[in-house]
UniProtKB/TrEMBL annotation:
Residues 209-397 form the Cobalamin-independent methionine synthase MetE C-terminal/archaeal domain. GO terms for biological process: methionine biosynthetic process. Transmembrane segments: none annotated. Pfam families: Meth_synt_2. This is Methionine synthase II (Cobalamin-independent). It comes from Brachybacterium faecium (strain ATCC 43885 / DSM 4810 / JCM 11609 / LMG 19847 / NBRC 14762 / NCIMB 9860 / 6-10). GO terms for molecular function: 5-methyltetrahydropteroyltriglutamate-homocysteine S-methyltransferase activity; zinc ion binding.
Amino acid sequence: MTEILTTHAGSLPRSPELIAANAARPVGEDGLTPAPTDEFREVLRQAVVDVVAKQREIGISLPNDGEYGHLMGSAVNYGAWWSYIFDRVSGLELTGSDHFSSEPVRSAPGDVRLTTFPDRRDWTLFAEAYQDPTSGITVGSQPTFPAATGPIAFSETGRELIGQDITNVQAALDAAGYAHGFLNSLSPGSGSRINDDHYGDVDSFLDAWVEVMRPEYEAIAAAGLTVQVDDPSIAENWDQINPEPSVEDYLAFTRKRVDAVNRALVNVPTELTRFHLCWGSWHGPHTTDIEFRHLAPLLLEIDAKYYSFEAANVRHEHEWTVWQDVELPEDKIIVPGIVSHATNVVEHPELVAQRLERFARLVGPERVIGSTDCGLGGRIHSQIAWAKLESLVEGAKIASQRL
């Protein structure tokens, strides 16, 4: 029997103790969080031990630290996957202007530009629903993000913090009896979505983020851990371009971000690389998402062994058929989302099995790893999140037996 392995996209619900410890940390004048105290480090270390042990108890095959090293000071937080990097990069500061308060930006044929977050096409199309607190749409709190006001670089604090993440997860993996795990890291393209008040050129700013992220990728891989590059920008940027561009213009714009990932990963072994694509984890209509069929060939140009993507939420579940037409290279593995962060309904194990079987019959069960659409931490209640992972593991066992 070929066992279908299980994993998740990265973020897991934080413990109340860790949330409280994060919330209690002071914020400096630059808007960033200073180096952690010894007391905080101990809270974090124990939380990582516990979350890895919980994954082992449930039966998750390929675990991580739950992204616990990415600061999250509240139970609901959609942005920690991104905002964590700001404490690790020099050259950033709060300027009073960001993607939420800036003026909208308009694109033209051959000139694709990202507009502001409130000017997203999904948000404007459903403005009434987004502004209605009873609609069920949630996007999380919208803090002020820093801008680049000087040359940016991966800082000494960044090196200390990724070192802390590596030490914590390695100890937790050993304690739980795992042979291997992964850590999440931001993509250059996603990093470059903050405001640039220094470089003055989109491509130059993207190049700078390549140099920023490379040391974090290399540190993770050098420790023998898998690097998961989180890059919603590959798909999510489509919704943040106004008016809607042509697919050709968008793919040209996106190919630069794919190239940026590959340049940042140049010294990382392919077998130690996962890439995560999603359309944004906020709970909204998502009617303006770009179709996966346009992105799948581009996704395979990324120098990774594992490709993680949303495949369980109701906007994208039907797109499993893409793999009927797109040939997966023999040395690659897909990591489709089988349970979703976008609903509080816990997927039945039988549904999990059916979803896994669809992919396994197209590419082979040995080249499918069952996962989550996106991170569960900060998006759904912890009790529901762990129930979803339990269902994922149970469904993978059913599918493995059938196949």
